[in-house]
Design brief:
This protein is α+β, with helices and mostly antiparallel strands. The protein has six helices and 24 strands. A seven-stranded mixed β-sheet has the order 2-3-1-13-7-10-16, with helices on one face. It is a single-pass type I membrane protein.
């Protein structure tokens, strides 16, 4: 009798321990968040992705609004048509794993909302103590890009706590408010280490603890790739590179066969660009001629920094952020500088950006729009 009771107790204890370990194992897996801000019940977007409401991630009852107009470029109401509105500082508390790098994506649709003037919306966004946006106007930025909506993506360095605070703070001006349509938080493999700076063999750059912003993600010679077709469930968006090519010799685009294998070095398959059905490449002629004009945005920002910060006297490698494996990087930098100083007319679809000599400061004056001036 006693032995039977002892056996049952042992079995029960084993079951409890196993259950605790099982639950702990589930909780230890990094989880992605897709929040439709301002929506009561969330929803499913046009790609079949599910979005949950943001209600349980903010303390308090904050107003929400519904966009009065759906732009033709928005194929799905979720997650763009609903927005959370903030007239004072508000913080989202998002669960994260210790020492895990995350992608944070912020969605903005600066449309008409009842009772609000979208041109009054200026605000800052701080995540984990890092300022991502400052005095930001989604309306101005979207107009500069001739886009209806914006997606800002950041790679946040691993943290030593399990809550990521994302704070929205309206600017100190009359009738200012902050808004957000959607938030994504996706765990990612920590790809970044340290490397030697091009042109400065005695200087290293450590990106392990760096917080980075995604500027461009291009599928060279290939088509647009939606988040649902990305590798590793990372839900990244890949854009076609055609709008960023300029010059007569743009190279020859090829579609490879099944036997062609892309080598990504130490990148795992779950992080590398999607491979199936998207093996494309560009062959460049001996005269070169393939150029990506988004470097102009970086040049303008760096030129602005050069004028503000003393000591940046060189006209090339000391301030111009052009990096690559090519031995022509420095001479290319020199050519870009000269071209910017005279006149450069760049086309991006219907967007025409003219930079006249002496106008660099005017273009770079709005810091919130400068880095995104040529984002797809």
């Amino acid at each position: 009798m006693h032995s039977n009771i002892h056996a049952l107790l042992s079995l029960a204890c084993f079951a409890l321990v196993f259950n605790a370990l099982y639950v702990s194992g589930i909780g230890s897996q990094p989880r992605s968040l897709s929040l439709s801000c301002g929506s009561e019940n969330g929803g499913t977007d046009g790609d079949g992705r599910k979005w949950e409401s943001d209600v349980k991630y903010i303390a308090g009852n904050y107003p929400h609004a519904r966009a009065q107009y759906q732009d033709s470029s928005i194929v799905s109401e979720v997650p763009y048509m609903d927005a959370r509105i903030f007239i004072s500082e508000v913080t989202y508390n998002l669960p994260i794993m210790l020492k895990t790098r995350y992608w944070l994506r912020l969605y903005f649709y600066p449309s008409e909302y009842s009772g609000l003037n979208i041109t009054n919306s200026y605000f800052s966004v701080v995540a984990g103590g890092v300022t991502l946006l400052n005095n930001f106007s989604a309306s101005i930025t979207a107009q500069a890009l001739t886009q209806a909506y914006l997606i800002k993506e950041y790679s946040l360095a691993p943290m030593n706590h399990q809550i990521l605070n994302v704070t929205f703070k309206p600017a100190d001006r009359p009738d200012a408010f902050a808004f957000i349509n959607a938030i994504e938080l996706v765990p990612m493999t920590d790809l970044f280490g340290s490397g030697t700076m091009v042109g400065f063999s005695d200087q290293n750059f450590d990106a392990v603890s760096a917080n980075l912003e995604t500027m461009y993600r291009l599928n060279v010679a290939g088509q647009y790739i939606s988040p649902t077709k990305d590798s590793g469930n990372l839900t990244r968006t890949w854009y076609n590179d055609a709008p960023y090519l300029f010059g007569a010799a743009t190279g020859v685009n090829l579609q490879t066969n099944e036997s062609f294998k892309v080598q990504y070095g130490e990148l795992t398959e779950s992080v590398a660009p999607p491979d199936k059905d998207h093996k494309t490449l560009t062959i460049v002629g001996t005269a070169g001629g393939v150029g990506f004009f988004f470097v102009a945005a970086a040049c303008i920002a760096a030129y602005r920094r050069k004028k503000i910060i003393p000591g940046f006297d060189s006209h090339t490698s000391s301030w111009l952020p052009v990096y690559g494996n090519s031995h022509t990087a420095i001479s290319a930098s020199e050519a870009i500088v000269k071209r910017l100083q005279n006149q450069m007319t760049l086309w991006k679809s219907s967007l025409r950006l003219s930079i006249q000599k002496g106008d660099e400061d005017n273009i770079a004056g709005n810091s919130s729009a400068t880095r995104d001036q040529l984002r797809p």
